[in-house]
Write a structure and sequence with these properties.
Layout (H helix, E strand, L loop, with lengths): L10 E4 L2 H20 L5 H15 L2 E5 L3 E4 L8 E4 L3 E7 L2 E8 L2 E8 L5 H20 L1
Antiparallel strand pairs: 1-2, 2-3, 3-4, 5-6, 6-7
Helix pairs in contact: 1-2
Length: 138
Amino acid sequence: MTDMVIEKPTTIIKVATEKLTPQLIIGILIVIAGFVLIPNIIGLGFMLIIFYFVNSSIEVVRIYPKYSEIKLAIIRPRWLILDASVESAEVDGKNLLLKINEEDKQLTRKIPLNALSAADSESVIKYYQSQANHNAKK
């Protein structure tokens, strides 16, 4: 057997349920309208309801002791961001722009904050800005 250690994230931030609630309500209304008026749209309503549950289970940001992971959508890959590689974190409208140094290349990662609650987006911004300030002092 191998001696593999599985790290647990210190913080997990999910999509805010209040941002997804309109999607669920519209899905339910479409299903009801499908049964009453137009049966062809029932599938669309069920799709919206399924997407509500899928999107509500996405862990957008996972913060570990030495790195973080970002997953913006169910079909997109997870971005691994080392704390030591964060060079700057700036808020640009409704997005957080992270400049990271990955394999001696500077990359910009754009994280939309509108899917997160206000408290969660503030904590994400503060976390990455503190990492950038810590790395600038080195």
